[in-house]
């Protein structure tokens, strides 16, 4: 009985440790790799769908120089919006940033404007699930014809591949992130979807 209890405690600690690694370290490493591969030019127009991952919005803003701009879509979380507004002031990037309230299924953004459309752990929260297809269509609508879509999320990103192919994307890659993206274990893992026309 004592051995079983020790095994259970060890498993719980492993799950919690893996979750905390992804939350506090892994997400940052994943995005650092993604941004390193994208090599975003400083005059780019970037849209971030959802501001729920603190740090990405400001990190992108620091990479840009006017007329480059990052536009973040706040999907209903006023506290996150206020935090990002404070970070904008602290980092002195107001000339390269904009935050707008909206929905992923009906983006308040101009069509064919953005070089990069990024989403960090947001698509899984679009409900009902059928609206995720609409959110993908909206992301594609606001992209320039040669734009790049990046979705970092957990769950099955394969579900978006056929829709993106139908929308003219012939180059859709889904990249595993390994233990850096495990939310407690391999049963809930993060992947990166990169789509280019």
UniProtKB/TrEMBL annotation:
InterPro entries: Methyltransf_11 (IPR013216), SAM-dependent_MTases_sf (IPR029063). SUPFAM superfamilies: S-adenosyl-L-methionine-dependent methyltransferases (SSF53335). The keyword RNA-binding does not apply. It comes from the Bacteria. GO terms for molecular function: methyltransferase activity. Residues 63-151 form the Methyltransferase type domain. Keywords: Methyltransferase, Transferase. Pfam families: Methyltransf_11. One of its GO terms (biological process) is methylation. This is Methyltransferase domain-containing protein.
């Amino acid at each position: 009985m004592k051995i079983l209890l020790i095994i259970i405690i060890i498993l719980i600690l492993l799950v919690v440790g893996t979750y905390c690694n992804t939350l506090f370290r892994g997400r940052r490493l994943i995005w650092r790799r993604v941004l390193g591969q994208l090599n975003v030019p400083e005059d780019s127009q970037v849209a971030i769908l959802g501001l729920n991952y603190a740090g990405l919005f400001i990190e992108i803003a620091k990479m840009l120089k006017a007329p480059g701009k990052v536009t973040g879509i706040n999907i209903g979380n006023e506290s996150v919006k206020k935090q990002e507004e404070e970070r904008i002031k602290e980092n002195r990037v107001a000339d390269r940033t904009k935050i707008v309230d909206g929905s992923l299924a009906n983006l308040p953004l101009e069509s064919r404007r953005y070089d990069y459309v990024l989403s960090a752990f947001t698509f899984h929260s679009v409900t009902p699930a059928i609206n995720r297809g609409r959110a993908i269509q909206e992301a594609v609508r606001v992209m320039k014809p040669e734009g790049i879509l990046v979705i970092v999320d957990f769950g099955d990103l394969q579900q978006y591949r056929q829709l993106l192919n139908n929308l003219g994307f012939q180059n859709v890659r889904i990249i595993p992130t390994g233990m850096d993206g495990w939310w407690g274990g391999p049963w809930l893992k993060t992947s990166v979807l990169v789509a280019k026309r």
